[in-house]
Amino acid sequence: MPLRPITDCRILLTGASSGIGAALAEELAAGGGDLIVTARRHEPLERLAARHPGRVEAIPGDVTDPAHRAALLEAAGRRWGALDLLVNNAGIGAMGAFVDADPSRLRKVFETNFFAPAELARGAFPLLSAGRRPAVMNVSSVLAHRAVPWKSEYCASKFALHGLSDALRAEWKRSGIDVVLVSPSTTDSEFFDAAIEDTMGRRWKGRRAMPTTRVARESIRAWQRGRHEAFVSRSGRLLVWLDRLWPSLADRMVARYG
Ligand SMILES: NC(=O)c1ccc[n+]([C@@H]2O[C@H](COP(=O)([O-])OP(=O)(O)OC[C@H]3O[C@@H](n4cnc5c(N)ncnc54)[C@H](OP(=O)(O)O)[C@@H]3O)[C@@H](O)[C@H]2O)c1
Description:
The protein contains 8 helices and 7 strands, in the order E-H-E-H-E-H-E-H-E-H-E-H-E-H-H. With 258 residues, the protein is of the alpha/beta class. A 7-stranded parallel beta sheet has the order 3-2-1-4-5-6-7, with helices on both faces. The longest helix has 27 residues. The protein binds NADP nicotinamide-adenine-dinucleotide phosphate (NAP). NADP nicotinamide-adenine-dinucleotide phosphate binds next to helix 1.
């Protein structure tokens, strides 16, 4: 199968105001893609659109708001009448003991990391069905394969997105819509500063955090090649394999290091 071309690919991308989403938007626009991008912060989106006039349309808003999701899909329908790639990248984190957290933390994390991408994918189905080699790229995490303590809501939301991705890949195969699950390890972005709560006060981002450009390029390569999964880092892949082959050792390791 030839590589999926980026040129003239019609793309809807969430969480484009910083981090991995901003890097994905830059790479895809530079490669000749046509994009609608969203996030809550207006200014970074407008700067992004200004750097790629005619190629990037910014529609700021909150992906947890059903009216905003409908507006995004309506804009894609008006602009293209079809969609080749939906990138569900917007995501948030929360750190701290599950037992002490207010139940609203679990709801908030799931609204952004699971319900929003799930409903965008459902809503985008008719447009994707009319697309060229259409795909959904769900930006998940290595923690969607092996959960760790102190990020329980986040891990659970990414496991849910993993499960939905596998189910939809099989369910939508006959419609020709592919689903790619991208699972980065710790990445150098605003993610930890933007966490909705951190009751631990720990330093989460080590020196080995991956650059966002690397995550973006590897994710795009996986989608272009028609892969179903991209782990991005070798340490992430190792952790997942260790968990499959020797789960009790993986349990001991994550209980110790978190
Ligand atoms: N950084 C890591 O270590 C890491 C590792 C594995 C996976 N990931 C995943 O990678 C994805 C991108 O995260 P990142 O690392 O690039 O962090 P980031 O720099 O904080 O980017 C998150 C993006 O999501 C947007 N966003 C958050 N809530 C939103 C909402 N309700 N509506 C619309 N947009 C929203 C943010 O924009 P606004 O604030 O402007 O709305 C921002 O553009 C996430 O799904 C995350 O779970 C990150």
